[in-house]
Design goal:
The chain is of the alpha/beta class. It folds into 2 domains: 119 residues, HAD superfamily/HAD-like (Rossmann fold); 106 residues, 3-Layer(aba) Sandwich (Rossmann fold), CATH 3.40.50. The protein has a 6-stranded parallel sheet. Helix 9 links the parallel strand 13 and strand 14. The longest helix has 12 residues. It is globular and about 55 Å long.
């Protein structure tokens, strides 16, 4: 535990590490207070593209945690940054929520449903056949297919909901084109997090609850990985993968024991 706590910075996943739905997890308030009181550099990294940093800050505020919007980085932001470096001034047809559209606008990427450079898909609750049909025709006409993250499902208080990987699958199948996913486990996302807190890889610990996105992203970014069992992964699940986290805890509450 001392090795982890002595790190200069922390990158933390959110769902399964900090909260489930609208319920904060055990010990999280103490952990966040510890980060702030000890002047640790930290950022909350989420594969979800549904909310802006300000909305995530407000969500934690409703749970009793005071965390500024600057401490959040989403797959929507990573996607916008990626596209702006790939093709500055490009246009996109977007299937996603307002937070994704805003992130793209902030990087000078504007909406185009006639001849866009990219079709971008993120989590959304307004998925429709018309949008799928439009996206398929645009990709067949030459638009590049981009997913904010490859997650197939995501947890909610009502159960499991389809995430970006599931929503983009019909477009991939119908066009024969594979999407490029920007979010975890793509190490690009984690490297953006490192840049945001101005830390080198050896100076931080990455805390996550998923072996297939969080831990592999940490390993491929050469950072120390911390798996918490408060999310979707059980102790038995770890042996199903050909790689392992450096540290394993039941939850972030164990770090401060």
């Amino acid at each position: 535990m001392k090795e982890v706590l002595n790190k200069k910075g922390f990158i933390c996943d959110m769902d399964g590490v900090i909260y489930h739905g609208n319920r904060i997890l055990d010990g999280v308030a103490d952990f966040v207070n510890w980060l702030q009181e000890n002047d640790k550099e930290f950022v909350f990294l989420t594969n979800s593209s549904e909310r802006t940093p300000h909305e995530l800050s407000m969500k934690l505020g409703r749970m009793g945690l005071n965390v500024d919007a600057d401490h959040f980085y989403t797959s929507a932001m990573a996607t916008a940054e990626f596209l702006s470096t790939q093709k500055p001034g490009c246009t996109a047809y977007v299937i996603g929520e307002a937070a994704l559209t805003k992130a793209l606008y902030d990087h000078g990427i504007y909406m185009n449903d006639v001849n866009p450079d990219y079709v971008v898909v993120g989590e959304t609750r307004t998925y429709s056949f018309e949008k799928i049909e439009k996206a398929i025709n645009l990709v067949r006409a030459g638009a590049k297919l981009i997913g904010t993250n490859p997650d197939i499902t995501g947890p909610t208080e009502k159960g499991i909901m389809p995430a970006t990987g599931a929503l983009i699958a019909p477009i991939e199948i119908a066009t024969g084109k594979k999407a490029y996913f920007v979010g975890k486990p793509n190490p690009l996302m984690l490297r953006h997090g490192l840049k945001k807190i101005n830390c080198h890889s050896e100076e931080i610990a990455f805390i996550g609850d998923r072996m297939d996105t969080d831990i592999i992203a940490g390993i491929e970014s050469n950072v120390d990985t911390v798996l918490v069992l408060s999310g979707v992964t059980s102790l038995e699940d770890i042996d199903l993968f050909p790689y392992r986290p450096k540290y394993i805890f039941k939850g972030v509450y164990e770090l401060l024991k």
